[in-house]
Amino acid sequence: MLQCIFLLSDSGEIMLEKQLTGHRVDRSICDWFWNQAISQGDSFKQQPVIASPTHYLFQILREGITFLACTQVEMPPLMAIEFLCRVADVLSDYLEGLNEDLIKDNFVIVYELLDEMIDNGFPLTTEPNILREMIAPPNIVSKMLSVVTGNSSNVSDTLPGATASCVPWRTTDIKYANNEVYVDLVEEMDAIINRDGALVKCEIYGEVKVNSHITGVPELTLSFTNPSILNDVRFHPCVRFRPWESHQILSFVPPDGQFKLMSYRVKKLKSIPIYVKPQLTSDAGTCRINLMVGIKNDPGKTIDSITVQFQLPPSILSADLTSNHGVVNILSNKMCTWSIDRIPKDRTPSLSGTMVLETGVERLHVFPIFQLGFRIQGVALSGLQIDKLELKVVPNRLYKGFRASTRGGLYEVRS
Question: Are 330 and 368 a contacting pair, CB within 8 Å?
């Protein structure tokens, strides 16, 4: 049972406080939390569960905003973390983004959402589709009406139809002239390449996203050609677990609209689409850098939105970097960004230049880590493929569509 939720800005300011039970949690717990975060740094912020002198704390970080939940009783920690993730996802969906200004501008809606999502410390309604029937998303018209009428509430006067349905994430009276369902495989590749060019780690985190607009209460089944490659699968509550456990088939009654059907990992991949070859030599107070980027394994689709980022070492006083393709920018915090977009066919993109070391430093001792970003439309690099999607009872003609995409995640090249 959660007792309180705080939303903290990146400076430690309490943007929102929501007491959930009769036992009030004092704000001083946030002061203790932030002092620990400052003193211990990133290692503290990466701990999802923290034991303070008076409370158990659960935290997640999204777009610079810390979602902090408190309790004094023992409870499943994964439930608290999952609930905070749901809150962050719902707010991002409602506000079409997530930052400090959006939360302060839509303070009332955030409070109304928390009122519906948790009851007396226990999670209640967390489905975005059902919440939209209960609380209208913010728009210009509703904001103007609240100013004119003085009524700032967005809560509907009637309960959503799902309260009378056997499946709480879907209403029973949905009707469409055209029945459509679209499935997206969205993957993110994490990789680590050491300074010798060897692949240390390569895995993919993926999500199966569904957008369904089907009349009535449909029952869908989705199967993959190679489900054995999947690890750490997580399902939407609509998925029946037994068909997956016995035959690796997803059987479900979908919510109406967009939702995440499942997430997964594919581990121990042995190939990467793009290579990055850094060369750094330093002597007599200067450092020469030469960086080359190219396609290592052609996925058969265009690779675009390619970027390379790296933090200049603290001992670097100034840098003069140029490239034969793309744009190079060095920010005030010594973060260098090289925007390549697409790799041309007639030459290999390269970045080169000279970096001046601080006075008294002859050689570079701390070497940068290069972070690669990219996007590939039309292919899932994990190799996962959808076999078929079937609807048991087809009210009318059903239109189906499938897409796949992969982007770079934590893709690091050591030098």
Answer: no
